[in-house]
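Title: Prediction job returns without error message
Component: structure pipeline
Severity: low
Priority: P3
Assignee: unassigned

Description:
Job completed but the reporter wants confirmation the result is attached to the right record. Sequence as submitted:
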Amino acid sequence: MSYFNVRVYGLLINAQNQLLVSDEQSGGRIFSKFPGGGLEYGEGLIDALKREFMEECNAEIEVLSHFYTTDFFEKSSFNDSQILSIYYLVREVNPLEMVFKTEVFDFDADTVQSFRWIDLDALKEEDVTFKTDKTVVNMLLSLISESNESYTEEEV
């Protein structure tokens, strides 16, 4: 039976202009995505995102604004569901106290998830695995490009 799978993700950019990415292993696959996950029955989007950050990063976050909601069909890579993903810009309430990796898929023994920062000026579509995440990366890159163009125009 087909069904909808609602996902919620946070785009956390630190003071060094780096974006937080999660590398994970699940269902016999490895992939890179943004922190977040599935909505549970009876849960709102913001509550789900805050729960996911607590579960994955042991971090309290503040949701700043909505960034993007999937506007095309995407079938799950893991089952017969249709993915609907909602992305928010977030910030950490307190500094993140966790180990960050510098290499992709650098998992510690007996772990299925690791986190790393990607410099926004080095960010590229290939840094994430799934179609919707790639769309979000391209949107971020467009915003950065527009911002840089505006900054350059103001200098002139």
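Comment from assignee: result matches the submitted record. The longest strand covers residues 82-92.
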